[in-house]
Design a protein that fits this description.
Elements: H1 3-15, H2 21-33, E1 58-61, H3 70-73, H4 81-92, E2 113-116, H5 130-147, E3 153-157, H6 159-171, E4 188-191, E5 194-199, H7 204-209, H8 214-228
Parallel strand pairs: 1-2, 1-3, 3-5
Antiparallel strand pairs: 4-5
Protein name: Type-5 uracil-DNA glycosylase
Pfam families: UDG
Family: Belongs to the uracil-DNA glycosylase (UDG) superfamily. Type 5 (UDGb) family.
Length: about 230
């Protein structure tokens, strides 16, 4: 089985996961009740797998799908304000085929980039519990293991993702420094042939207040793309 088919198989298994009762109940309730603006949508209402090619040189790790974003569309960062910011920036630096992401069949392609998260289900109030994070970690470990042959850089969005990602990298075979490096925007950590970058999350709280600007996000993505050897 080649890496592409192995990753596709993993994605299917992720989408069938029912390991966390609170998250299963929430994501399915949101899919039933919907938001008025999306009343005509059939919500995905399942765990959202990663998005991007199996031979990605750069990965982006977020937090979890949004209730009316990824949980609605079935694709990471698709159909919500955070995704609008992220995909515009990826397009601006030449890593995406278009600046918008509205549905899983909108034709968007990523160039050498894979987007995933440490928690694959939409959580209430956008806050997974530590237990839910830990239960979901094996999926990220398996994904990173499959990506390892080509992966050269990773951008982690936010402190929650950073805290979740470091143990996953260790379990996937990378040597993580001790003590574990602290999260900070713009931080860069070397892990066995891979550069790990910290970036403030593309949440509305950060982007609306100016804590994370488009220029700041583009700068991290450009630097990470260079480290990954992407054009």
């Amino acid at each position: 089985m080649d890496d592409s088919s192995a990753l596709a198989r993993l994605d299917r298994r992720v989408a069938d996961c029912r390991a966390c009762p609170r998250l299963v109940e929430w994501r399915e309730e949101v899919a039933r009740t919907k938001r008025a603006a999306f009343a005509d949508w059939t919500y995905w209402g399942r765990p959202v797998p990663g998005f991007g090619p199996a031979d990605a040189r750069l990965a982006i790790i977020g937090l979890a799908p949004a209730a009316h974003g990824g949980n609605r569309t079935g694709r990471m960062f698709t159909g919500d304000r955070s995704g609008d910011v992220l995909y515009q920036a990826l397009y601006d630096v030449g890593l995406a085929s278009q600046p918008t992401a509205v549905s899983a069949d909108d034709g968007l392609e990523l160039y050498g980039v894979r987007i995933t998260a440490p928690v694959h289900c939409a959580p209430p109030a956008n806050k997974p519990t530590p237990g839910e994070r830990d239960t979901c970690r094996p999926w990220l470990v398996q994904e990173l293991t499959l990506l390892r042959p080509t992966l050269r850089a990773v951008v982690v969005l936010g402190a929650f993702g950073w805290q979740a990602a470091l143990p996953a990298f260790a379990e996937a075979g990378w040597t993580v420094p001790r003590p574990r490096p602290a999260f900070a925007h713009g931080t860069r950590v070397a892990l066995d042939g891979l550069d790990l970058f910290g970036c403030f999350h593309v949440s509305q709280r950060n982007t609306f207040t100016g804590r994370l600007t488009a220029d700041m996000l583009r700068e991290v993505l450009r630097t990470a793309a260079e480290a990954a050897g992407l054009p």
